Amino acid sequence: MSNGISVPCMTIAPKHLTLTALVVVCLTGSSVAQDVGTARDGHLRALLDSLRTSYALPALAAVSIHGDSVLEMAATGVRAVGFPERVRTTDRWHLGSLTKAMTATLAAMLVERGSLSWTTTVQDVFPQIVDSIRPEFTDVRLDELLSHTSGISGQDFRTPSWLYLRSDTLSLSRQRRRWAVEFLQLPPSVARGTYGYANGNYVVAGAMMETVTGRGWEDLMRDELYPLVGMIESGFGPPGSGETRVAPWGHRRAGQELRPVAPGPFADNPAAMGPAGTVHSTLSDYAGFLIEHLAGANGIDGIVSARSFRKLHAAVSGNHALGWIVVDREWARGPALTHSGSNTMWFATTWMAPGRNLALFAVTNAGTNDAAVAVDRAIGVLLGRILAIGDLEPRN
């Protein structure tokens, strides 16, 4: 059966070394004739492999979800170019800025617990730094940080700490707090209330969570969020360790070639950027997170209440929510939520369509423009295979 598969369009944030990135995919109008088959027909891996080969990528993996169940998942390619180890569906993949929705979810958990409120401000948590930061930021609220409407600069490399964060010996919490102050000392990049994508928003929000709980962001994620959504194999930074290829490695472009980057300080952005984009996860683990949000988007209480999920998923400035981008798509039967992430060595994209009770995710271990296009095409393949089934029940 031949199906028309939407060709995604993209808005890609400027490429620079601090990117954990925002890429908006469209999945609209134009289509190409391609036989993508039907979900669960056993051919997803072959389709992904064709895409991977066409875009000269090391590996490509994807998973689709309906309700509380995985429809299908597959992975193809090698963990590192030049080495024989093949990827598996159980491998861990770097999620980049898909981490932001996780940090926002953690914030919602703390709000429901009473540790914070959405209107908690910088000066509420850090009264001692008010005199050393720009006055525009003293009363910036938690929800403004998580929706990128605080005005904080997106130029991470302008902060004094940027040059030595990877070699810093302070605890991550102390690094994050110092870095948060530096972001708050930079001139605003946009007017407050206006959307301006910036990792610094999430660094400051993470530092606020650490201060009010007395616990590191990584510990909060590992102890509070991960267990409740089934993220039992997830962690932080580049997956794997040392020179052994027990997990996929990220890849940088060198001329016309992709070169693998072994796990280490330069295989990811600085660890202090954690709340903005350092989580790695398996396909199954990340599916658990999406299943939780899909249920929440359909009004079901879970790790937080349906009301809190509405807060997380509601557009604040334009179409930007808290860790998500909200767009209307005909195929989604209403609003869809999406986000992408890259640390320039990986690329990942996710979509949720609550009206269809569907979620989609694709990832590759390269961060090039071709990688972004291939991942978006993989999302289109997942969607086409689901639509070929016919009508799934909108909700379980």
Describe what this molecule looks like in 3D.
The chain is α+β, with helices and mostly antiparallel strands and 396 residues long. Helices cover 31% and strands 20% of the residues. The protein has helices spanning 44-54, 99-113, 122-125, 142-146, 172-185, 199-213, 217-229, 274-277, 283-297, 306-313, 369-387; strands at residues 3-7, 10-12, 23-25, 28-34, 59-66, 69-77, 92-94, 235-236, 250-254, 257-261, 279-282, 325-329, 334-341, 347-353, 358-364. The chain has a six-stranded antiparallel β-sheet, with helices on both faces. A three-stranded antiparallel β-sheet has the order 7-11-8. It has a two-stranded antiparallel sheet with strand order 1-4. Strand 13 (334-341) and strand 14 form a beta hairpin. Helix 1 (44-54) runs antiparallel to helix 11 (369-387), helix 2 (99-113) runs parallel beside helix 6 (199-213) and helix 2 packs across helix 7.
Could you give the topology of this structure?
Elements: E1 3-7, E2 10-12, E3 23-25, E4 28-34, H1 44-54, E5 59-66, E6 69-77, E7 92-94, H2 99-113, H3 122-125, H4 142-146, H5 172-185, H6 199-213, H7 217-229, E8 235-236, E9 250-254, E10 257-261, H8 274-277, E11 279-282, H9 283-297, H10 306-313, E12 325-329, E13 334-341, E14 347-353, E15 358-364, H11 369-387
Helix pairs in contact: 1-11, 2-6, 2-7, 5-6
